[in-house]
Amino acid sequence: MFYSLLKSDYVALFAIIAFGILLGKISVKGVSFGLSAVIFVAMFYGYLTNALGFDDFQIPSIIQKIGLLLFIFTIGMQAGPSFFEAFKSQGSKLIILAIISVVTGGLVTFALGIAFDIDFKIAVGLLTGALTSTPGLAAAIESSQSPLASIGYGIAYPFGVIGVILFVKLAPKIFGVKVEEEEKKYEDEANAGTPELMNKNFIVTNDNVDGKSIGELNIRFMTKANVSRVMEPNNNESKPPTKETILHKGDLVKAVGTDDALKRVELLLGEVTDKKIPRSGYHEIRWFVVSSRNIVGKSLGELDLHNNYLATVTRVRRAGLDLTPRPSTKLRFGDKILISSTKGNVEGLTELFGDSIKMVETPSFLPVALGIIVGVLLGKIEIPLLGGSSFSLGLTGGVLMAALGLSRLGKTGPIIWHLPSNANALLRQFGLLLFLTPVGVGAGSKLVATISEYGFQLFGIGAMITLLPMLIVTILGHFVFKVNFLSLMGALTGGMTSTPGLSAMDNMTESDAPQVAYATVYPFALVAIIIVAQIIGGL
Fold it and tell me: What is the pLDDT of residues 127-139, one digit of tens each?
């Protein structure tokens, strides 16, 4: 009975997943393998069944394909918005460094593969293991059409985890950097580059403003701030502003914007005051959630809330960040909008925006299914190259690029390309487990033969692929690009796709510089690793 259970593919699937998750939870001095431990259990299972003579045992390949599709698509959906927004940010140096680390890893892999006569189907696995990139492994297996890539991955992965942690721990001492000084520099740069939204109250004292409407003064255009309340001096109740609201000397005005924007308001209207502007009985300020499909993709200018609802948008919160609302700001599903309006218009605004947290957080599998179909078709497109050859993104690249593009697009007709974060995390984890298990089982049956052929030099090659890119990128980033060292280490862990490495940085500093850098470069590093893995795997 025991042997029959070992040969049962569905029993094996869930047994490997269960024991792999348990193994991944074991932490030694803060280091654990997480879900990636599943591949080690699967490799042992494959080795065991092979040793017992179950040569024909395997988990159906369709399980691996389904897992791959779910895993890659959900990664793209999560990374899409930040992937494109990073082009507009000041993270270009970090992105370049992360891509350099991946390309360097690829070149080291290629050079060592030739020098030591390593089969590139194994070498590409060493690369993805050294960079701790499971999506890269997926691309490697697809391009090489061989389980040998997963053997290389399993050999290089442990040092890929430990090596990054040791490097980021020792790097400040090696390069003579004081973490406290880098924290102070980063804080100063961050405060200068990302002005905080605030609000102030003003008394209208400018004679040129007296008797003119907010529309005539064009306050939003002139100052880049938003007026949220207006109160007459002899009135104890404020009123929501509209374009027709007439300002008089002595009126109190509440405005929201950056420090520079509020200084321009002061020049336009009058002096700052500590006097309070209370909310009136007919005045309402509240958050609305964008859950209506009809307004996704529309700009605030198109909605014209001033004229249609006597309402003013003072903030847009997206992915935890407060954005200054502009007429050109396009709404995305799940955005939160802070609006100042009359109570009578709250019902209309609720109907307009939808304002349903439940709808935003309720997952639908439709965008996943349709998005994967788009990705599969995209991956089959042949792109002609010089010399008569052609190139295609393949299954992994096609699905990833489709997910990145669709998540950025947000909406196509009636389809909302959105997955709540909890649903995305669950599907991503499920897909990863379905992918790793059959891959590991297939690799385990060939593990002994591979090590017998190449010996233990594969472990040393994997370590070199981990260390050399980190050393080169740190030298370039610190001495050439002059990047803040904490941001550099965050970019380094992002380029190596190493969450444990990022955790090690968290224990060294209270600054959020490593996390911000990691989040900025990770999507680019992910795409770069997949492309490099496809190239080397196809050699």
Answer: 998 998 877 888 8
- Render pLDDT for 390-439 as a digit per residue (tens, 0 to 9): 666 777 778 878 888 888 788 888 888 888 878 888 888 898 888 878 87
The per-residue pLDDT for 195 is 57
Residues 518, 86: Cα–Cα separation, whole Å: 12
Q: Is the pLDDT of residue 2 over 60?
A: no
Is the distance from CB of 230 to CB of 253 less than 8 angstroms? yes
3-state secondary structure of 465: helix
Q: How many CB atoms lie within 10 A of CB 78?
A: 20
3-state secondary structure at position 467: helix
Could you please report the per-residue DSSP string of 9-61? HHHHHHHHHHHHHHHHT--BTTB--GGGHHHHHHHHHHHHHHHTT-TT----H
β-pair partners for 28:
31
Q: How does DSSP classify residue 290?
A: B
Tokens 């699905």 — which residue?
Answer: 399
CA dihedral 26→31→34→38, nearest 10 degrees, is -70
Q: How far is CA 390 from CA 263, 381, 385, 410, in A?
A: 58, 10, 5, 31
Q: Mind listing the domains of the chain with CATH numbers?
A: 63-186+389-440+453-538 (no CATH), 206-270 (3.30.70.1450), 292-353 (3.30.70.1450)
Query: Does pTM top 0.85 for this prediction?
Result: no
Those residues whose C-beta lies under 8 Å from the C-beta of residue 1, and which sit 6 or more positions away, are none
CB atoms within 10 A of CB 200: 18
Share of the chain above pLDDT 90, in %: 20
